[in-house]
Write a structure and sequence with these properties.
Helix content is about 45%, strand content about 20%. Strands 6-5-4-1-7 form a five-stranded antiparallel β-sheet. Among the domains are: about 45-105, SH3 type barrels; about 145-250, no CATH class. By secondary structure, the chain is α+β, with helices and mostly antiparallel strands. The protein has helices at about 1-20, 115-125, 125-140, 145-170, 175-180, 185-190, 195-200, 220-225, 235-250; strands spanning about 45, 55, 65, 75-80, 85-90, 95-100, 105, 205, 210-215. The protein has nine helices and nine strands.
Length: about 250
């Protein structure tokens, strides 16, 4: 047994100097991807409420925290991809954090968002269309897509005025209005359905004689002044002339 141990010890002694002479080579550690996405730190706004679910993790299957409303301001903290879509980790004041599908938000930092939002305005309908148009005008005040949207916006609101006229005349009764002694036009211009439009900065005028609402034509006026050389300016002028005629119309007694 001693004969076997001795050669092994001698072999270990003979290898020790060779091992000592080898240079130390550190084991390479995996490097983290330190490249920062340009979207991080940017501010954006929620527009597409269909996709605006704020989630606990970046997945379409993750638990929902809340559905964020249109116009909600968010700041991007991180980016991830899952389930075939991109997600933003966001902070949404006053106290919400989570992940939202990137397609739900729009901002000036991302190429293509301006055109994408212009298309969304044209693709929606009802009050959503008007609300999204207002968001577009606020976010992109100098957009090349603005002239046709201004013309469309005014036309949509004149259609709304017709519906408001019908609703107000059916719900505001002459007997009730006369009982208080308040001017008739004040009842119409305080009509509750106007509130949602006032919040967007939209004004309707009222013809007391015909008992009709009309859009005040602000978007058409902007077209004829700021975008006088646009193809839409002539159409806008025609609409303003028509509005003037409607407001000066007096019904025969």
């Amino acid at each position: 047994m001693r004969k076997l141990i001795l050669p092994i010890l001698l072999l270990g002694i003979s290898l020790t100097p060779a091992l000592a002479q080898r240079p130390f080579v550190p084991v390479a550690k995996p490097r983290a991807n330190v490249a920062k996405s340009p979207e991080i730190g940017q501010t954006a706004f929620v527009v597409d409420e269909t996709l605006s679910v704020l989630r606990e993790t970046p997945s379409l299957y993750a638990a929902a925290i809340q559905r964020m409303h249109r116009g909600r301001k968010i700041q991007i903290l991180g980016v991830a991809e899952a389930d075939g879509v991109k997600f933003y980790k966001v902070t949404a004041p006053p106290a919400s954090f989570g992940w939202v599908q990137a397609d739900a938000v729009f901002g000036k930092f991302r190429p293509g968002d301006e055109e994408r939002l212009a298309k969304l305005v044209q693709a929606t309908n009802g009050f959503d269309q008007i609300e999204i148009a207002c968001q577009f005008f606020e976010m992109y005040p100098e957009s090349k897509f603005k002239p046709p949207l201004l013309l469309l916006f005014g036309d949509l609101l004149e259609e709304v005025a017709l519906k408001l006229t019908k609703d107000a005349n059916s719900k505001l009764t002459r007997a009730e209005m006369a009982a208080t002694g308040a001017p008739l036009h004040s009842y119409f211009l305080n009509y509750v359905s106007l509130d949602r439009y006032r919040r967007l900065g939209i004004t309707f005028v009222f013809n007391s004689s015909s008992k009709q609402f009309h859009y005040n034509g602000a978007s058409w006026k902007e077209l004829t002044t700021k975008y006088a050389d646009s193809a839409e300016a002539a159409e806008a002028k025609n609409r303003l002339d028509t509005l003037k005629t409607k407001m000066s119309t007096t019904l025969a007694n």
